[in-house]
Amino acid sequence: MNPLEIPEIVIRRLPLYLRTLNLMAAQGQTVTSSQEIGERLGISSTQIRKDLSYFGEFGKQGTGYNIEYLREQLRQILQVSQRWKVALIGAGDLGRAVLRYSGFEEGGFEITAVFDKDEQKIGRQIGKLKVLDIAKLHEVIREQGICIAIIAVPASEAQEVADALVNAGIKAILSYAPLPLRLPSNVQVHYIDPVIGLQSMTYYLSPEQI
Amino acid sequence: MNPLEIPEIVIRRLPLYLRTLNLMAAQGQTVTSSQEIGERLGISSTQIRKDLSYFGEFGKQGTGYNIEYLREQLRQILQVSQRWKVALIGAGDLGRAVLRYSGFEEGGFEITAVFDKDEQKIGRQIGKLKVLDIAKLHEVIREQGICIAIIAVPASEAQEVADALVNAGIKAILSYAPLPLRLPSNVQVHYIDPVIGLQSMTYYLSPEQI
DNA sequence: TAGATTGTTAATCGATTAACAATC
DNA sequence: TAGATTGTTAATCGATTAACAATC
After folding, report:
1. In this complex, which of A79, A195, A204 lies closest to B205 when CB atoms are compared?
2. Which of A56, B1, B91, B103 is deepest in the core (most CB within 10 A)?
3. Torsion over CA of B44, B48, B51 and B57, rounded to 10 degrees?
4. Which residues contact B82 (CB under 8 A, 6 or more apart)?
5. Quick check: B194 and A106 CB within 8 A?
6. Same domain, A71 and A139
7. In angstroms, how far apart are the furthest CA atoms of chain A?
8. Residue A149 sits in a domain of what CATH number?
9. Could you check: is the Cβ of residue B66 within 7 Å of any atom of nucleic acid strand D?
């Protein structure tokens, strides 16, 4: 029951369960089962029940899970009931796409500051936000009490940005830069690298398809 | 030695090794060791040697691995020595960011066609490509002999697009839409969902940081 | 040669799943 | 009640790692 004992692989699946429940709720469904969730995700029902059992008992024998209730429980476990403020570094094509993607908002995240070092971009308005000078990173992050950041700068600048973020007090980083960041162990990090995904699929393609 | 027996989790790590070797080569390094690769990636040297041993013997006792040689071997294993043609569906903010990202090119992929259903976008020039009408999806994919696609359309349209892609002969899909696609088992799929990554990090953040 | 590092085996560790009592 | 589904235990399965001979 100590959170430290819960395998990370279990934590990584919880957002998938939450996302599935959100979709079901959006379609007006009120009750589901571990089997139904599993079918949607390609995961066994046993695994879903086992994963949830790390945190408590959320279902009823014979009937399954109340979707609204389980959603709220998962939101609380993942700490996404409240909205988190997020800083975005990089206002290039990728940064702008991140900024305009509505999924963050729905997932419990609000990008409240965007930074770039390019003078051409600084001061430019993107949606509700004005691009800030990266020189103000520390100041703004501290002022707003932000502890999550998204890195959307070129690989060559990512480590430097990460260092500045850690220095400003950031505790979780989502990085789109295709290289591993050197970070203190108390800072969470996840990477998004589409090329890695593609390259592990081409392994399975038959040679005649090239 | 039968490819079918190699665990998928091993295949998923190979692109990381390749990426690391690429970075080393770019810095002019010519030789490395399993320990050095492991340190960069946060993976044990034993695991790297074990993973590579599924495919052959690529190193020399006492000296390690020739970077150029191991790179080329990994490229061949992953089938990314040749350039793959890729179709991109969706020319919104995300699609444009994907199109302008140079990492695909470097990873062995060339986006050779981009589609959208929005008449406002069809015909527009993005970099070297003109946005095509999604009605021409089947025709163009067959003509060009494309077998990999990237989905960058809203979640509500992703399944429909996926069905059309499968119908056109696509064998591998990278989807940015935050939901699981229903696909034939002979079609590879990988998902990119940044919110999932963020939500599994917030679990570990201490509540006072909210 | 001595030191370094590989490739591989066997042991360990951890995750998944089968089975089932409990109960709605 | 009978059927369905949960939560949990124990068994199985698979991945990681420790140890080491081989050898550059």
Report:
1. A79
2. B91
3. -140
4. A210, B108
5. no
6. no
7. 62
8. 3.40.50.720
9. no
**What is the percent of chain B with per-residue pLDDT over 90, rounded to a whole number?**
95
Cβ-count burial A6-43 (b if 16+ within 10 Å, e if not): beeebbbbbbbbbbbbbebeeeeeebbbbebbbebbeb
The boundaries of the domain holding residue B106 are: 84-196
A96 touches strand D (CB under 7 A): no
pLDDT band at B3 (very low <50, low <70, confident <90, very high): very low
B94: nearest CA partner in chain A = A97
- B107 touching A, CB under 8 A? yes
Within residues 18-57 of protein chain A, the ones with CB less than 7 A from nucleic strand C are 43-44, 46-47, 50
Helices (H), B5-79: 8-26, 34-41, 45-53, 67-78
H helix or E strand, kind and range, residue B116 = strand B109-116
Domain assignment of residue B22, yes or no: yes
Which residues neighbour A114 within 8 Å (Cβ) at sequence distance 6 or greater? A87, A88, A89, A91, A95, A99, A126, A129, A131, A132
HSE of B98, CA atoms in CB hemisphere, 13 A? 31
pLDDT, tens digit (0-9, with 9 covering 90-100), for B5-35: 899 999 999 999 999 999 999 999 999 999 9
